[in-house]
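Project standup — Tuesday

K.O.: blocked on the structure for the chain from last sprint. Re-posting the sequence here as requested.
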Amino acid sequence: MPETRSRRLLELRFPARAAELKRTRDAVRESVEACGCSAKSTADIVLAIDEACQNIIRHAYCGESDEVIELDIDQRGHDLVFSLTDRAPAIDPSQVKPRDLDDVRPGGLGTHFIRRVMDVVEFSRPASGRGNLLKMVRRID
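H.V.: unblocked you, prediction finished:
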């Protein structure tokens, strides 16, 4: 079986601040559109990445910080691979659970949305051993 080649579409480093997220959304949108994703898929992916970044800011860094979030987007065949890395204290991936959908109240549904939009969602440790790595994969439609 031939090996699937990988192509880096985006490498973005930014402080964990809400003010950085518009630039991030714009960069993600441009990268995803360039791969030929539909307008709906592009909008869903941009929102999922935004939700993930907001979760890093709120929960991993416990609020806005000058610490860095790293976002890499790679294309591997027909898949887009999104990697979000932080340098926050390690989380326990088993504790990252969406709340019950029957629990009707504002907020807290980002992880539901991310899992609905992405084909694969995995938490792990970055190669550096410090922080957290969220890897998400979405098949190009």
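K.O.: great, moving the ticket to review. The beta strands are 6-15, 68-76, 79-86, 120-124, 132-139. The mean pLDDT is 90.
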